[in-house]
Specification:
It contains two helices and eight strands; from the N terminus they run αββββαββββ. By secondary structure, it is an alpha+beta fold. It has a single domain, classed as Roll (Thiol Ester Dehydrase, Chain A), CATH 3.10.129. A six-stranded antiparallel sheet has the order 1-2-6-7-8-5, with helices on one face. Strands 3-4 form a two-stranded antiparallel sheet. Strand 1 and strand 2 form a beta hairpin. The longest helix is centred in the middle third of the chain and has 16 residues.
Length: 132
């Protein structure tokens, strides 16, 4: 399994994700939590977090949750959906993942995004193809 430094290295290798600042709260098998400061590069008109950024970070954390299992080499997203419950106008934003099910070739991960007040703002479900 990897740790917080490994997570930061993976983000740094990605052309899009490298521009997202975050702190790792915890990583365990099947679960990750990060805190993302609400910076200008994530804000849209109306001073709220961009929905695409919410989805991209949620998808990244979902995929990385699959990698917390020792036999997994890599993963790719098969399907991803997000329900936006309320806008995010205050940070830091907490992204919290939880493995729902991992099989031989497919994994299912839930990801929640909470605003700086701890209010649930989005729920995502990712389906990932697993390379072992």
């Amino acid at each position: 399994m990897f740790d917080g430094e490994d997570l930061k290295k993976i983000f740094a290798m990605d052309g899009f994700l490298r521009n997202i600042e975050f702190d790792v709260s915890y990583i365990s098998e099947g679960s990750i939590e990060i805190k993302v400061p609400l910076r200008e590069n994530l804000i849209r008109i109306g001073d709220i977090m961009n929905g695409g950024a919410i989805m991209a970070i949620s998808d990244a954390i979902g995929g990385l949750t699959v990698l917390t299992y020792g036999t997994v080499i890599n993963q790719v997203t098969v399907n991803f959906s997000t329900e936006f419950i309320r806008q995010i106008g205050k940070g830091p934003v907490v992204f919290r993942s939880r493995m729902v099910r991992i099989g031989k070739n497919i994994a299912y991960v839930d990801v929640e995004a909470l605003d700086g007040d701890g209010q649930l703002c989005s729920k995502s479900m990712g389906t990932y193809y697993i390379y072992r």
